[in-house]
UniProtKB/TrEMBL annotation:
One of its GO terms (molecular function) is ATP binding. Residues 7-246 form the ABC transporter domain. This is Urea ABC transporter ATP-binding protein UrtD. SUPFAM superfamilies: P-loop containing nucleoside triphosphate hydrolases. It comes from the Bacteria.
Length: 246
């Protein structure tokens, strides 16, 4: 039987010198769900992702990915368990090509020799080409990342995560600084990505949110202010008051 939730966040709390940036937060993510977290600046959105990926240590609570408790795991163990995280600013290697950036992110297997190594190289190349196509960079494989647009760099970084095949992908404001056309394509990309995995996205652009969200969680002062379909949270008077009305 397929489990109901891929991620279960319960009573998650972090306190920085007594200030609770995330305060007894609970939410649950289903397989193939795109959960969007919205909310005013300083609401705790980025901190939630930092806690899930192990970058920041929680003060209390639980984050279960399948049956694994992530809060006691190191960042690299969480990545290996299948949780990928993209930060706000793209961090691609400017001097390397699109192909090389993707190749560097390809999961390292055991080293192999001779005919086996040859076979592995072919597999890696095939996978890189497939991912490049998915992120709209199929024709830019030999282009240095430095020459890509800001939006293309963001896609490349998503590709560098996708090539590791995470079951849960977390993206912090992926369309910030993108053109309208790039935003539309990113929405298309995310809708394709969730066919095989779950995604948590932090975003401000409500048009983009409407294009991608399965469910929306509105965060305010480290707590859930409202949660549900885009339609539901948009019409929630509390959300209009603290966020959308501004
Ligand atoms: P958001 O992403 O919703 O804009 P953040 O999660 O970045 O908000 O920040 C939430 C609050 O926690 C802010 O008041 C921020 O200043 C504070 N904060 C975040 N990280 C730290 C930290 N490492 N030390 C102290 N305060 C922090
Ligand atoms: Mg943030």
């Amino acid at each position: 039987m397929q489990e109901r939730f891929i991620l279960q966040v319960e009573d998650l709390t972090v306190s920085f010198d007594g200030f609770k940036a995330v305060d007894a937060l609970s939410f649950y993510v289903e397989p193939n769900e795109c959960r969007v977290i919205i909310g005013p600046n300083g609401a705790g959105k980025t901190t939630v992702l930092d806690l899930i990926c192990g970058r920041t240590k929680a003060t209390a609570g639980s984050v279960k990915f399948h049956d694994q408790e992530l809060l006691t795991m190191r960042e690299d163990q969480i990545v290996n368990a299948g949780v990928g995280r993209k930060f706000q600013t793209p961090s691609v290697y400017e001097d390397l090509t699109v192909f090389e950036n993707l190749e560097l992110s390809y999961p390292k297997g055991h080293s192999v020799f001779g005919a086996l190594a040859f076979k592995r190289d072919a597999e890696v190349r095939e996978r890189i080409e497939e991912i490049a196509g998915t992120i709209f960079l199929g024709d830019q494989l030999d282009e240095k990342a430095a020459f890509l647009s800001h939006g293309q760099k963001q896609w490349l970084e998503i590709g560098m995560l996708l090539i590791q095949d995470p079951e849960l992908l977390m993206l912090d404001e992926p369309v910030a600084g993108m053109s309208v056309a790039e935003r539309k394509k990113t929405a298309e990309l995310l809708n394709r990505i969730i066919q095989d995995r779950s995604v948590i996205v932090i975003e401000h652009d409500m048009g983009f949110v409407a294009d991608i969200a399965t469910r929306v969680t509105v965060l305010h002062q480290g707590k859930t202010l409202s949660e549900g379909s885009m339609e539901r949270v948009q019409n929630d008077p509390k959300v209009v008051e603290v966020y959308l009305g501004h």
